Structures
1.
Amino acid sequence: MVIIGITFLRPNMDYNLMLSELIQESPVVVNAKDRLSSIIPKMRELRIHTAPVVNDSSKLIGVIDYRDLLRRKAPLGSRASSVMLPPHSISLNSDIDNVVRKFYETRLREYPVIDNNGKLIGILTRSRLLTAIKDQLPANAKVGDYMTKPVLTITPSDNVAKARWLMIKHGISRLPVVDGNRLVGVVSLTDLIEKIYYVSMPRRSRRGDFSGEEEFLAAPVSSIMTTQVYSIGSDKPLTKAVDLMVSKGVTGLIVTDDGGVVGVLSGSDVLKAYMDSKKIILPIQARIEINNDAKPLIEKVINNHLEKISKLVNVVDFKVDIRARDSGKRYEVTVRLKDDKELHTATAEDRDPVSAIREAMDKIMQSIIKNVSKARDTKRRSRIQE
């Protein structure tokens, strides 16, 4: 049996930091009737990725996710009400450890904060959270202990399509650009999606030098990479990495040793370090032996789906069972996920265990989306009747 660890937090009774000390006024607050033509430019200018949508009573009714809008290529004429996501949020009385867990699970950079009546109070950024928990990181923790490795890189002459494919395939948000052994730039997934969005717009509103998406994807990485790159050594204290990320306003650092790239450290990696001193392992039980090549792929599929699901519901319990059938020729996967309101179960079979897991997780995802949409429609009808 293979055990894949999933981290859940145990409340930290010795750490009394109050959430109210960390929240700030949201730079962008959206009304349901606002159009994307006014929302997207503000979010882009302020580098905001999550904007709360409120009604006339300041109650949170949804969120606008910047990267989600760009990926879906939502028309600029769309109203917020037609493209907003369910209102994932943090309650003002939340325990800091649970807040860390939410940020880690969803990979979000900002979270709306609400009071007991669902009214928007402000927003909490991952940057402020990192600063708050910095002194609670494991003693003597080094960058190299928590950086993502081995690191994927790309060259300046590689095309943009390859960079996008690598990031999507491996579930990463940034790629160091290297010329030989020298770090010369970085490409982020958000920047790529943003540029694709604008080059895909009608010519009269298009921004940039590319005539369309096809030309953009064929362009060399050197034409769109960011040359201002912040790096840090693997032997540096993790607290120093937090200070650098916060002061420079970046979400990750390239880790270099002797001039060569050896890893990438993100804000989520720092949250993982914080959780290490408090973790409870809730295992995903696999009833077959999985080879070392398949295990990271299985973890990636599960974590990518959980990241999306955690934005919609609060995950209370989660388990996966994998069983061999027909002498190992096929695999049966059963996924059980419990949220605050319901237990979701899905099964799938395939010759490839990774494909079977992906199919089962997709079914769970669709079940949750259906429930969330149904609940949203019910609330909408109730408001109309009132």
2.
Amino acid sequence: MTSTDTAASAAPLTVEQLRRRGWRGRLAVLGPAFVAAVAYVDPGNFATNFSAGAGYGYLLVWVIVVANLMAMLIQSLSAKLGLATGKNLPELCREHLTPWRNRFMWAQAELVAIATDLAEVIGGAVALHLLFGIPLFTGGVITGVIAFVLLGLQSRGHRPFERAIVFLLAIILVGLVSTLLRTDVDGPALAAGLVPGFDGVGSLVLATGILGATVMPHVIYLHSALTQGRLVARGPEDTRFLLRVGRTDIALGMGVAGLVNLSMLVVAAALFAGTDVPGTDTLEGIFAGLGTELDAVAAYGFAIALLASGFASSGVGTYAGQVIMAGFLRRRIPLLLRRLLTLAPALLVLGIGIDPTQALVLSQVVLSFGIPFALVPLVWLTARREVMGDLVNHRVTTTAAVVVAAVVVGLNAFLIWEAFVA
């Protein structure tokens, strides 16, 4: 069953009926952005944000704020693309790109999916080890199985899957924001962190990792699939209603993700920056440091949030992998086989003993390099009236999206220059 078939079978009410139901109708349409939001608070975010706060204090607060604003714009374009065309981004790339370009796009998107799963499975494995002492390899297998179970909820329609993801997102939010509220934050330093700046190549690497962990390539592909065919607009009023609710969905979902990401960095900056707390560049060290500097409640809140993140984001990542292959190649493989293919590299990393936190940070840098290949086609397609019809981007929107794409490409190019040439 395709995602479109599932959505259609689970949404018997028409858009007009939902409009007449007021706020209850709006609630019935919310959901896709919260699924996307989970990818913005995956375990890679834990590694990069806590490492950034512990190593550079409040310096990179501005990166999280800017990345979250970028995410809102990008996800709104992806959602609108699915709504306007009834197709997702990989499907439209297959239609509008030459065959060799399409195959290249598929290949790099699959690498992005593998890097995504690497972060998510490692995060879940580390969390299970911190909470229950489970070996990392076994924890990785458990995380993969839980993700498979979550995806099984799709057979009952989009709502059960979305509710499970929102529940896990709520656990992440509570686990981290509750710690933030109990932390003594330096207000002036936090405000100063809103001013853009770097402190050497190390901070630039982490900034690129934060960007890769916040503006996730695979979820750019996915969001267009989450809205395609979900509800069919049968007139201008229906279209305007779906657009308004979609913007609300994105503002809420991305707002939650931004608050979670900011909480991570600020807590690390307040508790670890400039201190002699050891190991704060690792997830295990952060867990121990929270217990030392605050209390066991903060430490276990962190671990539970990390576990919820690993479970939820791994399910969403595998879903995105399905969309990528089906869209670019018009082929599907059994869900279990896809789960095993993307799980294998993560289990290999865990099996040979590579440092989990370092693998997480590097995976986010890989994701950052994959952003332009998802973002540029998205901007190009949503700016074309023959593709979007009346929902084509306003010129200001296209300009803003081009600037975002240029910033991402420029940051990555500068990183390469500093790391390998300068």
